[in-house]
Inverse folding.
């Protein structure tokens, strides 16, 4: 699963866990690390970690092995690296502070 299909799949899996404000950014012309960033919000530390864990587990079921996941213990901002796409699951406050949509949009 690559590119367009992967980004749509990941956004859908975040939505399964009631992630809010899901935004998909095409950063292929701005980054050599990934093609897409999916940014979404969870309403608590546990919710943020649960969204990221669900997305990672569902990706594995489809044969897409996560390259890494950081921040799940803290639960304020979890980054899930899936190669062609990265998923940023954030609580509202860090999301407002870092404004990834403006930085990469």
């Amino acid at each position: 699963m690559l590119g367009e299909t992967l980004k749509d799949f990941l956004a859908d899996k975040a939505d399964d866990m009631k992630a809010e404000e899901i935004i998909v950014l095409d950063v292929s012309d701005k980054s050599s690390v990934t093609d897409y960033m999916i940014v979404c919000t969870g309403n608590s530390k546990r919710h943020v970690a649960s969204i990221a864990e669900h997305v990672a587990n569902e990706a594995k079921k489809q044969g897409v092995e996560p390259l890494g996941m950081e921040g799940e213990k803290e639960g304020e901002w979890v980054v899930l690296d899936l190669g062609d796409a990265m998923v940023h699951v954030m609580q509202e406050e860090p999301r407002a502070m870092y404004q990834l949509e403006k930085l990469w949009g």
About this structure: The longest helix spans residues 45-61. Helices lie at 3-16, 45-61, 92-98, 100-104.
